[in-house]
Amino acid sequence: MLDRVAQRTRRRGSERSGPVPVCTAGAVLTTPRQYPLDGVTWCFATGGASGHQPADTPDAMALAIRLGAGGIETTARLTRDGVVVFRESARVGGFRRRSVDALTSAELPPDVARAEGLLSGAASVSASCRWLVHVDPTTASPVCDLVDMARAADRVWLVSGDRELLVRLCERVGGSRLVAATTPATAGSGLERFAATLREHGIGGVQLSHADWSGGRTALFHRFGRRCIAAGAVHTRMIVPMLHIGVDAVCTTHPDRFVDALGELGRGVGSERGGGSASS
Predict the structure, then answer these.
(1) CB atoms within 10 A of CB 169
(2) What is the 3-state secondary structure (H, E, C) of the chain?
(3) What is the per-residue pLDDT across 27-61, written as a single tens digit (0 to 9) for each?
């Protein structure tokens, strides 16, 4: 099935004029209204290619990279014996679902993604894959330990809605690899003050729902040197505006639709997995 989905994406790309956007980690923006900070918009697949495969499984993550994602968005969970798994849902199982933190690692279903193997490249996902990992006070330290062991600090961004946790993590991982998840309603005294606070603490980026981003908000956070990440853009019609306004990353359950959005805009794509640079 993985091959059939990837082949359908290649066929759609081959019908368009210009470059065929297949298995590209980042989009090189040639005609945007605004540019991302680094000139590249990254695609992070939420739970892997969860629009095609069961979410948060190694198969879904491997398929996402083949369909064009440059990284995976996921959530860290801890088992009862302290093993880190990547899974958005806190529960596993079929009819009788159980909480991940109530099970030992030996009791987990075989398709639950183990963080250690994924970060080290020992699992089915490429060792060059980037990760956008949501953490909380219980999982942040174990995830940092695994990142250090795998020497993956340059490939992992930690995301949290807990600003106090992010400030504490700055001392350990450096703020450029931290992302504050928020909404305009919960950002406190306004987005400009929020952006200034992120810069003051060295927190590198902000994640909002795709519906909360606008060209003005992207320009605001870029003015403070903070990266902009759009969450939940599951349809091509949602992704296209994000590329136009210059967000730095798009999170989607359908990385093939990110590729479709590039085709609709008639843009070039990164020639190397891992990104590219905007044309001058």
Answers:
(1) 22
(2) CHHHHHHHHHHHHHCCCCCCCCCCCEEECCCCCCCCCCCEEEEEEECCCCCCCCCCCHHHHHHHHHHCCCEEEEEEEECCCCCEEECCCCEECCCCCEEHHHCCHHHCCCCCEEHHHHHHCCCCCCCCCEEEEECCCCCHHHHHHHHHHHCCCCCEEEEECCHHHHHHHHHHHCHHHEEEECCHHHCCCCHHHHHHHHHHHCCCEEEEEHHHCCHHHHHHHHHCCCEEEEECCCCHHHHHHHHHHCCCEEEECCHHHHHHHHHHHCCCCCCECCECCCCC
(3) 554 455 788 999 999 999 999 999 999 999 999 99
The token pair at 210 is 């795709």
Question: Which tokens belong to 207?
Answer: 């994640």
Residue whose token pair is 């490939």: 155
